[in-house]
Amino acid sequence: MAELEAVIGLEIHVQLATKTKMFCGCELSFGDEPNVHTCPVCLAHPGVLPVPNEEAIRYALQIGAALSCEIAPRSIFHRKNYFYPDSPKAYQISQYDIPICGAGRLGDVRIHRAHLEEDAAKMIHVGESGRIHGSGASLVDFNRGGTPLVEIVTEPDLRDAAEAAQWARLLRETIRQLGVSDVNMEEGSLRVDANVSVRPAGSEELGTKTELKNMNSFRFLQRGVEAELARQRQLVENGGTVEQETLHFDPASGSLTSLRSKEEAHDYRYFPEPDLVPLVPTEEQLREARESLPELPVQRIGRYEEMGLASDVALTLATDPRTAGYFENVVEAADGIEPRVLANWVTGELAAALRQAEVDGGAADSRISPPDLAKLVRMVGERKISHGSGKRVLAAMVTGGGDPEEIVEREGLAQMSDSGELEAVVEKAMADNPDAVEKIREGNGKAIGAIVGAVMRETKGRADGGEVNRLIQEKL
Amino acid sequence: MIEREQVLHVAKLARLSLSEEEVETMVGELSGILEHVDRIGNLDLESVEPTSHVVALENVLRPDEPRPSLPPEVALSSAPEPQDGAFRVPSPQAE
Amino acid sequence: MTDLLQMTALEAHEAMVAGDLAASEYTAAWKEAAAGDDLNAYLWRNEDGEDSQAIAVERDCVAPIAVKDIFTTEGVPTTAGSRILEGYRPPYTSTAVRKLLEAGAPILGKTNMDEFAMGSSNENSAYGPALNPWDRGRVPGGSSGGSAAVVAGGLAPWAIGTDTGGSIRQPAAFCGIVGLKPTYGAISRYGMIAFASSLDQCGPLTRTVSDAALLLGILQGKDPCDSTSVGLDGGVSLPDREDLSGLRFGVPAELGGDEYDSGVRAVFEQTLRKIEELGGEIAEVSLPSSEHGISAYYVIAPAEASSNLARYDGVRYGMRAGGDGDLVQMYETTRSEGFGPEVKRRIMLGTYALSSGYYEAYYGQAQKVRTRIAEDFSGAFAGVDFVVTPTAPSVAFKLGEKTDDPLAMYLNDFFTVPMSLAGIPAISIPAGLAAPEGGGPQLPVGFQIAAPAFGEQKLLDAAYALEQGIGFDARPEGL
Predict the structure, then answer these.
(1) Which domains does chain A carry?
(2) Spans in chain C with pLDDT lower than 70
(3) How much is the ipTM here?
(4) Among residues C143, C144, C147, C428, which one is catalytic?
(5) What is the b/e burial string over C105-122, where b = at least 16 CB atoms within 10 angstroms of the residue's CB?
(6) Chain C 389-448, residues with CB within 8 Å of chain B CB atoms
(7) Do C181 and C259 fall into the same domain?
(8) What does C379-406 look like in DSSP terms, one character per residue?
(9) What is the pLDDT of residues A8-17, one digit of tens each?
(10) Residue-range definition of the domain harbouring residue C416
(11) B2 in C contact zone (CB under 8 Å)
């Protein structure tokens, strides 16, 4: 059977950080007592009418601009009809075939559309009711009901789970920098569902897709998609067919459960919302949205790549603006050192040192000032200290701060610059390890490690590895 | 014109439970009405735009400014089954 | 009726302003009259109890008014004529009622209506039909039957109702009073329990055209709580036109079949002659798509209604039944027990029209017919100032006469539905009396005048002149 390739699209719901709800003036809530932020409108009392929040529209236009979306010259709201206690009108006001944002792009993934809608209320299941009939009950809290949402749908351009999670991080960071949402997956202000299917590699047709929900971290998103891809692959390879369904991923067990029974295909009976009039963004509003954009992650990535950074390092920095800011300060302080080298130190050695020392926060929170890091990197670059020594100095700076030169002085870590002294140590090490020398002469390159190791021990790591190697080769 | 099966399906969508008698009556009545209504199906309206909004208004919005919410006691005062400050409902049937 | 109660709302208002009439005395007289309601027209009367504090008026200075029970009134029962809202007291007051209170009009009570405004006879009320004061064996019309009955029956000086396909105009015609459906958007719909959102409009039911103008002036206005509201530019002035010279009245060619009773036809023709007498010109116009008005209306209105009524689910307010079962059982039992047969019929029709596979053929197509109807009117108004028709195809029919055949009931709306679909204003004024087709008592016949959108002032002026010319002064026996 032909190899099966994965086809993944994402559906993202972003809760907007406006002051009030999408269609009424109730404030948004943050873990308050139930039903303290409600009004006749968001409780759907008889006779109420929705009025859209102008800030939510503005935020949606900013998101559209950040995702390079075509903005609809005229978009309308639709009613999506379904019965559920968390939907008080028994319809959600959303957008259907004329959404505010159309085709766009973020990085390598095309955006299909983005539209405005309102969030559902919260339902908490409570235990057995104690009655003869019934299987328990739910309590409905309408605080969240009516919160503005922007739903973003991508084209199925993603090809593996890791890529999907990475792109989701990029999207999250992009939106976070707009200041329009907290985009916090744990808190629910960012929700990511995945549409997953497989097809023979090279095929243009799409296979039947399943929808994955309930992944509330990027790690779980990746694992969930991986699990579903594995399931589909196995199914197809054994001659089965994938059924369209919605699945819930449980990260604890790694299992996938079907959420909806197959016959419950919703007929939402969409029709244009008669209580709302069309949105017609003005030139002014569109310009404002575009001009309000800060330097976004994709632009940063471009800039860093131009500076010579590898793509993955650029992406890591762009999705972590504080560290990126730190990095740029280091570049400024390190006149002449290649940014690529500095970036590697910041995202590599420094990150590792911070983790090792269990320091909270990132580079920007560390005790190492950008000029000091620059100085350290220069010292390694100029071979004043070995790379290994550099890491030891870094470890010291991470916990205690300080000037790298002083630390080197104090710890006696200066690279052995006197080649005569070094030569002597090398000769002694070779003399002490005749077997190793013999092995090297026989062609066993790895044996050199023993001699290098001996030299390093003797010099307390101050020797330059490359120089040691050279000397050994010379004396063979 | 409209079949019994369709009536049952539509009733389900609308969360109405109809007695056997009501279903039968509904089949007859809806069929009669639909027969009349179906006349518009024969009209050639291909080039006509549907009216989705009667008033020629656009961009009617409100500022993002908080308005007072109802005190929770008032919000719950009409609730058929208030419990712990929330609206109690039976759980959906487990599938 | 005492002299006090003979005054029109305008006369009373002018007398109050002049200091010749104590508002409280006037209101008290009406309250007493209302207490004698034997027409089942009021579902709730204001006895100034504690519960009506939220709708108390600071200062009486306008005639007290009856309000169709479709408008929310804080703390005071609001049922929309349905069992599903029995006992429901809203936590807020509708904009229309709020404006009345701000103008100083005390609320006399909430009037009976067809359930959720669905009906043309008030027989679909869960609280029994309101009766026509002209003949208690007959319907007052619907859905604003209670509002029409109180005004015609001496139980209120004036009232507000709602009109979606004719629900103000037709009861006004059946009860021999004035009923106006304004341009869509003239009056806020906030707090007006929704039936069909793109058609519903609040409007006055009054004894005279001047009263209707006075009331419209109080109610109209753009409302930040209703995105579809526009108000009437320039407000409303009291009409004072003396004749109809220079005005052209169009009679649609598509009328002329046997759509209506001979008695109605006679009064209609008579009124056309009166218009000419007053200097107006009668012309023929064509509204080719109007014959499909009923079909389009009975797709669009039920479709929107099916969505608007989905919120009556027993979760947050109103009736709940079957709560011992699971969620779906609760929904189904609540709604099946809470809604009457007409409401269920329309919900089914509307749900079907919107459902997958049928949307384009029904809802989509109906909205196109609607565009055509609006275009027809625009075309007609290029040549005439107004379009005129009989308001209803018959005089008030007997209770139970049309309840067996829903379609027959729907055809009552034949003349009124096109104006609703086009969103243009239309008024019904009493033009004469006629006996029903098979014989019977003399009953009022309404004459409908429609104008272009936002043409209320011209409409009221012309209606006033015609009203003065006709001089209709018949009253139900005893009033």
Answers:
(1) 4-291 (no CATH), 297-411 (no CATH), 420-475 (1.10.10.410)
(2) 1, 256-258
(3) 0.96
(4) C143
(5) bbbbbbbbbbbbbbbbbb
(6) 405-407, 410, 423
(7) no
(8) HHHTT-SEEEEESSSSSPPBTTSSTT-H
(9) 999 999 999 9
(10) 248-286+375-464
(11) yes
